[in-house]
Amino acid sequence: MTQELPGISADEIDRVARPLEEAATLPPAAYIRDDVFALETDRVFRKSWLPLARVDQVAKPGDFLSMDLLGQPVMIVHGQDGEIRVMSRTCLHRAAQVAEGNGNRKLFTCPYHSWSYDTAGQLVRAPLMEGAGDFAEADCRLPQVRTEIWQGFILANFDPDAAPFAPQVKTFETYFETFRLADMVVVRTLEYDSDWNWKVLVENFMEAYHHIGVHQETFEPAYHARDSRVPDNDGSWSILHMPAAHAELPPGLPPVEGLEDWQARDLFASVLYPHFLLGIQGSVVTWYQVFPESAGKLKLKIHICVPGAYAAFEGFDQIADEICHMVDAIHQEDIGANDTVWKGLNAPMTRQGRLSPLEKAIWQYNNWWLGKMAPEDGA
Asked: Domains of the chain (ranges plus CATH)?
């Protein structure tokens, strides 16, 4: 293990793997080293199911959404045949991109030499290729990425041998069954460029301990840090349950029908490993979509989701804007916290710290990470 994780000693790994009451954080090298990030990319990201979009974001045949995923330009396309696919958007001719941004098309035509592909990725037109031996348009199709739809989320996995996603998270799905995640639609999106390691964001998201310092006037009065709790997990997710400090329902949209009072009032933060982050309360889901770019950089999109029918409510736009403002205000507080953590992780005197029992989700996560970062043969 030590040889396979640069800069991390066996003693440091042992301190992470101890029981929660004795456990330490990951060492700084797990966050700041580029060679550790390269191993993460190969052993974690490229073998994990990564959420790319909601179905409602590509609702109609021809709808597409493009992005870069682990250095691979891809597009999520709702095909004319009704299938949703994730595929390369790099032309098979000279590697230009056949699409940028989002929109609706029947054909994706490369701007370089006008090769055109249909919504299933099949090449249908390659002008002036007469005389090219053994070339046939029918033999050319944009490479596809394994795709699965779960609770309205479109996920992709570069590993052809990866186990299906849904069976791995059945317990998680049952936990949030009454929230009807599949009915949610994206109504607002916030975007941030962040100069820290992606795990700094995940760890901050998954503990309420910092409410007493970072969110003294926002979250702490509503969700006391001392009351937070984390259920045991099955190794593929963590859930942070933050009971509400008051009996009143939060203002804004009515909760999803069928929720019990505590479900409508309490706040839940969750991570489906490695970095599929969902904040859930009442009728609002905040999906933190994480795009790690290097050891010290990530892009973040925070999508605000509500039940589709709620968008027709009178005054919905104003309520959605208020939710958006609140989410941004909370995240601005977290940005300040993550900035100072990142500065400390890069300081030469920084060592592992002890975890609080309130940081059980981080302990669960860190041990999952160590397991995934180990070489497959266990050597």
From this structure: 10-45+166-373 (3.90.380.10), 50-157 (2.102.10.10)
